[in-house]
């Protein structure tokens, strides 16, 4: 029994991508369908990095087609990912070598924002993306310690800094440029803003799919100015279930609304504590706060993470959880959050600025 490309398309319209919740045809993932006799080959190109589930998706597609195409012979699906640039707030210049920027913010300090940011970046890299980490917390840079990176960046041309490397990430931080982490950065707002702009635009980022920016905590003048100068594809807010943290997280959400930055979702950190001695689980910072905030503002709860001493120990040692214990439950939670962030970015409007030609007016 013969079948056509249209039959293959029709069959794949009935198969839903478990990550996007859309069928593969509607999600524009199906490419290069080829039929040779009773054999079928095709490409499934995902718009988000998902290296850990490529084989799962390949098997799902092949099994579905075998059951949907009577008389089919050999069926081969090749699954890959391709990340493209997406639109940012209007009037902000894009950064060379960077497709998408993810801002990680918190309304207040102490909620695990920097730890979440570095594990998010490492999880995206583990899924096959090219990822960078920009430590924008000028007053309290922590990414050099968390990534286990020492020394100072080089400059091959005297103009641009070469990013430092740690666990497969390209990284830049004011912490690489000062003599000691014990030296306080006693700068006023304009100096901080200028420093961040230089770190962002005077670093030679190398073909990044995502640049994760670890913003300073708070929602003051500095944060607002940074949000207006950095071309952000989307933002992630980190909070704890504690009432006072949620109050400040709501302010962060409103800040991104005001500067026309899309909110990708909220990560609820330190949601439960499991005693390492007896195994008792307790909601020491409260329960359900993140879910309620998401319901109030129509945001998505990207994931919840436990209060676990190992997360702190691993980050402090320069080996964050995603690389220290890649097969553990917490690393898996970070990967699920990262995949959801990437899927939400993939569903956003594309950046078409590179498509339009530059018009140059000359006097003749």
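^ Assign residues to that structure.
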């Amino acid at each position: 029994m013969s079948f056509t490309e249209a039959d293959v398309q029709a069959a794949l319209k009935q198969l839903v991508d478990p990550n996007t919740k859309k069928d593969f045809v509607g999600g524009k993932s199906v490419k290069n369908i080829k039929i040779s006799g009773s054999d079928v080959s095709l490409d499934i190109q995902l718009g988000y990095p998902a290296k850990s589930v490529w084989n799962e998706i390949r098997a799902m597609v092949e099994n579905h087609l075998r059951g949907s195409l009577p008389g089919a012979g050999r069926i081969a699906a090749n699954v890959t990912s391709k990340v493209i640039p997406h639109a940012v707030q209007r009037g902000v210049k894009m950064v060379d070598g960077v497709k998408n920027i993810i801002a990680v913010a918190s309304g207040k300090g102490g909620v695990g924002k920097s730890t979440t940011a570095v594990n998010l970046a490492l999880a995206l890299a583990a899924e096959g993306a090219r990822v960078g980490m920009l430590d924008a917390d000028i007053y309290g840079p922590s990414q050099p310690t968390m990534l286990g990176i020492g020394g100072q960046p080089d400059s091959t041309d005297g103009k641009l800094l070469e990013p430092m490397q740690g666990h497969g990430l390209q990284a830049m931080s004011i912490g690489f440029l000062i003599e000691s982490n014990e030296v306080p950065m006693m700068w006023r707002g304009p100096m901080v803003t200028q420093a961040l702009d230089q770190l962002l635009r005077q670093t030679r980022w190398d073909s990044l799919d995502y640049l994760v920016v670890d913003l300073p905590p708070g929602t003051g003048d500095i944060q607002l100015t940074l949000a207006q100068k950095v071309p952000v594809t989307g933002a992630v807010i980190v909070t704890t279930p504690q009432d006072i943290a949620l109050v400040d997280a709501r302010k962060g959400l409103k800040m991104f609304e005001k500067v026309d930055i899309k909110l990708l979702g909220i990560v609820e950190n330190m949601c439960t504590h499991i005693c390492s001695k007896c195994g008792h689980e307790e909601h020491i910072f409260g329960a359900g706060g993140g879910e309620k905030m998401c319901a109030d503002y129509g945001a998505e709860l990207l994931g919840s993470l436990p209060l676990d001493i190992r997360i702190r120990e691993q980050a402090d040692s320069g080996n964050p959880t995603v690389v220290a214990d890649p097969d553990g439950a917490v690393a898996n939670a970070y990967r699920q959050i990262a995949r959801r962030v990437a899927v939400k970015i993939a569903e956003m409007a594309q950046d078409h600025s590179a498509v339009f030609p530059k018009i140059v007016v000359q006097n003749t």
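The chain has a mean pLDDT of 86.
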